[in-house]
Amino acid sequence: MTDDPRTIRVDEFLSHPPAKVWQALTDSELMARWLMPNDFKLEIGHRFTFHTRPIPAVGFGGVGHSEVLDFVPEKMLQIAWRTAPDDASSLDSVVTFVLEPEGTGTRLFVVHDGFDPDDPYQALSRRIMSGRTKGGWKGVGQRISTVIDESLT
Amino acid sequence: MSTLTDDVFAALASPVRRELLRLLLDGPRTVNDLASHFDMRRPSVSEHLKVLRDAELVSEHRVGRERRYQLEARPLVDLQDWLHPYERFWRERVKALRDVLEDM
């Protein structure tokens, strides 16, 4: 968990070469299997939608409105990530996938940027997580993630 | 909003209870162990633990003559969902990507 409320970063080592990871990232049918059903095309400016489970905690209704913003084959893919106009909360964010060769595999970075720090959900979560006051939760987020990962495996 | 109950938010509103949860992130502890971290009487610590227990954030287990407290993962998952929903979302997606790559 990052302390910057506007950005989420996740990185993961995948034991497959970047070319293969790139295929899984950009082939509509493969994307449907790991991300969500979509009408994606690798074409800058192409607009598409994602269908997934709603996330009530952030007022996300389950349909993501997206657009291919930029890409560099086997290195980087950047897409817009927007909520539907009638969702409870609005989000106009950008997801960037970066692939870096590591050994015979790939390190995948997912950077989700553009969360609104003034969003009431975000503001309340920061108040709980804030490290400035005694008993704040700075640094605890990462450990919660670890506990959760352990409980899910 | 989410499946989080008001109990959970009320439980998290206290710095003492957040500190208790932080201590329990390292693993189960006895009441005495937990109480030694605070400058208050043990019954007061027990009261805070009861609030956490009622919110199902912790559970109590008897080990011999001692009572031990441990974290419960499920409300933490909900809490994490609420604090940073997209982080959990991307972690899960990347795990699914790993499976797809294995099948390719």
UniProtKB/TrEMBL annotation, chain A:
Residues 16-144 form the Activator of Hsp90 ATPase homologue 1/2-like C-terminal domain. It comes from the Bacteria. Belongs to the AHA1 family. This is SRPBCC domain-containing protein. It comes from Phytoactinopolyspora halophila.
From TrEMBL, chain B:
Residues 1-91 form the HTH arsR-type domain. PROSITE patterns: HTH_ARSR_2 (PS50987). It holds the Pfam family HTH_5. Transmembrane segments: none annotated. It comes from the Bacteria. SUPFAM superfamilies: Winged helix' DNA-binding domain. GO terms for molecular function: DNA-binding transcription factor activity. PANTHER family: TRANSCRIPTIONAL REGULATORY PROTEIN. This is Transcriptional regulator. It comes from Phytoactinopolyspora halophila. The lineage of its organism: Bacteria, Bacillati, Actinomycetota, Actinomycetes, Jiangellales.
